[in-house]
Structures are given as C-alpha cells and as structure tokens.
UniProtKB/TrEMBL annotation:
UniProt keyword Ribonucleoprotein present: no
Recorded catalytic activity of this chain's protein: L-kynurenine + NADPH + O2 + H(+) = 3-hydroxy-L-kynurenine + NADP(+) + H2O
InterPro entries, A to Z: FAD-bd, FAD/NAD-bd_sf, Kynurenine_monooxygenase
Record protein name field: Kynurenine 3-monooxygenase
Cofactors: FAD
Organism for this UniProt entry: Nonomuraea typhae
Length: 374
C-alpha cells in the first residue's frame, strides 16, 4: 500500500466513529458506511439500550480525541448500587470504600451523536449503506441495492450481528459461535416526578430477584431507564395488562408507583436478545479486520461492552504506532494483544449476572461488603 491507505469502516456506531477519528488523525483516508439513516436526524431506535455505564477505560479512549469533557458534561456519576428488596430497606453498596469512585450513566444516542459529529469532521460518512457482501481478498464491498466500493483496508465495526464477520466466515476461514442467553431484556421508563428524579440519581438501582432482575440508570432529563433481564418465557407469560400489573405489584412493589406507563411500555417495547460472540481469527490477510462487538460481543452485566470496544480502538492505534502503519502486521498483532483480555471480560460479564440478580441480595454478601468497607 503506497501512500496513505484508504480505509473503509463498516458501521458508524460507537466503535466505528471513534476508530474513524483515530485513523484520520494518523493521516488515513477514512470512509464510514452505516446501514441506518443519520440517527442525529431520525432519533434513537426503539429497543436499543437508552443509556450506558461509561467507565475509565472508555473515557480514556475518548480523551484521545478530546471528547471526554463534552461527554462527561452530561454524565450522571453513579457511586454505588442501590439494592431494592421486595420488602424492607434499600441498601446502598458503594463501588469504592471512600465513595469517591463512580461509573457514569450517559445517553447512548447523545454519545453516538457526539462521535458522529467528531467523525464527520475528519472522515466521509455514507448513511443508508448496508453491507451485504465483501470479498476479503480484494476489499470489494457490496451494499444493499447493488452499489459497490473498494478500499485498501476494510474494518468491521458493525456490531454483534456483523456482516463483515459473516463474510470472513464464508470466504476466509473464520470460525464463529454465538452463545445466546436464555434471558432477554426489555426497557421501561421511570419519568421525572414534578421535575425531579424519582429515585437517587447517584446510584445504579438493582431489584435482584434470584433468577431475574430489573435495573435502572438515571438519564439527564431526570427520568430513569429500567431494564428487565428475565428468562425469555417469563416475558411471554405476562399476556394481559392485569397479569403485568399483578406481577409487578408482587415482585417490584416500590417501582410500580414510579412507572405510570408500565403496561404500555411492557406491551410495546421489544424483548432484545443477549449473547456472547466467540470468533477467530479477527482478520484476514492484514486487509480485513473486526473490532468491538463485531469481534467479541459480550452480555451487558459488567457494563463493559462499549468500554471494551473503545479500548480496542486505543490498542489498534498503539499497534499501528508499533508497526509503522503496516496493516498486515498490525491486524494480527491487535488480535493477539486483545484476545485474552476480551475473553476474560466476556466470562466476567456472565459471572456478574449471577452476582447482580442474586448474590447482592444475600445477607452474607452484604455483611462481607460492609466489613470490607468498615
Ligand atoms: P454497535 O454499537 O452495535 O454499532 C454497530 C453499528 O454498525 C451500528 O450503527 C449498526 O447500525 C451498524 N451496522 C450493523 N450492520 C451493518 C451493515 N451490514 N452495514 C453497515 N452498517 C451496519 N456497554 C457498556 O460499556 N456499558 C453499558 O452499560 C452497556 N449496557 C448495555 C445494555 C444493553 C441492554 C445492551 C444490549 C448492551 C449494553 N452495552 C453496554 C454494550 C454496548 O452497547 C456495545 O458493546 C457497544 O454498542 C458496541 O459498540 P460497536 O460500535 O462495536 O457496535
């Protein structure tokens, strides 16, 4: 590849936009291809998580393009988790013994919009371009409608159901498996009450119920987004408004008065699937590579999927430094550098589901935490 290579990034989500900014800063000519119309004009897709917990790993990556302050200006720091038992007192479990360390609740739509603005200043973006085919040997991409484009390097930042990954599986020997959980998720809204937060906005709220749970994260407009993580069949079992109301009154009694549109939200919001993507190799011929969820989607219980995708960008940037922008060396090195860490967080995220939905509510666990922090 003589001169600065042309890089195509498929997917203008969180990882794709950040990656475009980092690569443009290296002098690469970058074009993003995104299947959706511009979400800044269209609004958020219903059913995708409305907010995210952003931690230091993700912030560090945003710092690299000077976007951290802008994103943090709207963030709501959560210093611990607030446990809501069926009956009895709330229990705040701090994330650090001094109560000073926190994770940050941020709006996914606003984060994506900030990243799209940053990417648009530095790279080309083609919206409404859904990749449907890719020849890994030549870098030729085919989009819905038959339009084609070619690039020296093609990077798949196209999420858990990656079309780039599918092309590598079809034509470049990639092996993949997605382990779906038996649990799905559905979102509900706790609106602001008389203009104020209806719950403590300085905590991540959890209603642990053994085999299932509900959580709630605060939003800048003083609402909370609740997410139910339930076995899939449990969603279908509540098939009348009365059944929904009865179940919530019995299992989440303190939340019921806070969710005025409970039945409407429940009946109209979709049930999302959750899974872990296992795939290898993440690249072919040093020309086509995967990043973020496309390479290693994980379940959301550690709040680390986006953080991890952002950290991928930092590491890819480092290996490009080390290899002098030689993509044929950088892509295999990136995979070697990241595989173990991303496998570890995938396993930890699964383990944390059991901790959040069950262990945090046990008296033994609570005593141990209080002793730790005494
Ligand atoms: P995505 O954000 O999925 O972006 C992929 C982009 O590619 C999208 O814009 C999509 O439209 C586009 N695309 C897809 N296919 C094509 C195609 N064929 N052609 C062109 N474009 C395409 N992570 C955290 O760090 N903290 C959290 O608190 C957190 N909470 C979560 C809660 C839930 C319920 C879920 C489901 C996930 C959560 N995550 C969280 C994980 C996080 O959402 C993902 O890890 C993150 O979005 C991955 O970023 P990405 O850019 O790799 O993929």
């Amino acid at each position: 590849m003589a001169g600065s290579p042309e890089v195509a990034i498929v997917g203008a989500g969180l990882a794709g936009c950040l990656l475009a900014c980092y690569l443009a800063a290296r002098g690469h000519q970058v074009t993003l291809y995104e299947r959706r119309p511009d979400p800044r004009a269209e609004g958020a897709e219903r059913g995708r998580s409305i907010n995210l917990a952003l931690s230091e790993r993700g912030l560090n990556a945003l710092r690299g393009i000077g976007l951290d302050d802008q994103v943090m200006a709207e963030a709501l720091p959560m210093r611990g988790r607030m446990i809501h038992p069926v009956h009895g007192r709330l229990d705040l479990q701090l994330y650090s013994s001094d109560g000073l360390r926190s994770i940050n609740s941020i709006s996914r739509a606003r984060l994506n919009a900030a990243l799209l603005d940053a990417a648009a200043e530095r790279a080309g973006i083609r919206f409404a371009h859904r990749l449907t085919g890719l020849d890994p040997a030549t870098g030729t991409m085919v989009f819905e409608g038959g339009h084609t484009a070619k690039a020296d390097v093609v990077l798949g930042a196209d999420g858990a159901g990656s079309a780039v990954r599918a092309a590598l599986a079809e034509g470049a020997g990639l092996r993949e498996r997605t382990d779906f959980l038996q649990h799905g998720y559905k979102e509900l809204t706790i609106p602001a009450r008389d203009g104020a937060f209806a719950l403590d906005p300085g905590a991540l709220h959890i209603w642990p119920r053994g085999t299932s749970m509900m959580i709630a994260l605060p939003n800048p407009d003083r609402s909370f987004t609740c997410t139910l993580f339930w076995p899939e069949e449990a969603f279908a079992a509540l098939d009348t408004p009365q059944a929904v109301e009865r179940h919530f009154a019995a299992v989440y009694p303190d939340a019921v008065p806070l969710i005025p549109d409970l039945v409407d939200d429940y009946e109209n919001n979709p049930v999302g699937k959750l899974g872990t993507v296992h795939a290898r190799p993440w690249q072919a011929g040093g020309r086509v590579g995967l990043i973020g969820d496309a390479a290693h989607a994980i379940v959301p219980f550690y709040g680390q999927g986006a953080n991890c995708a952002f950290e991928d960008v930092v590491v890819l940037n480092q290996v490009l430094d080390e290899s002098g922008d030689d993509w044929t060396a950088a892509l295999p090195l990136f995979e070697r550098r990241r595989f173990e860490d991303t496998s570890a967080i995938a396993a930890m995220a699964l383990e944390n589901f059991v901790e959040m939905r069950d262990k945090v509510a046990s008296p033994v666990y609570r005593l141990a935490r209080h002793a730790e922090h005494a």
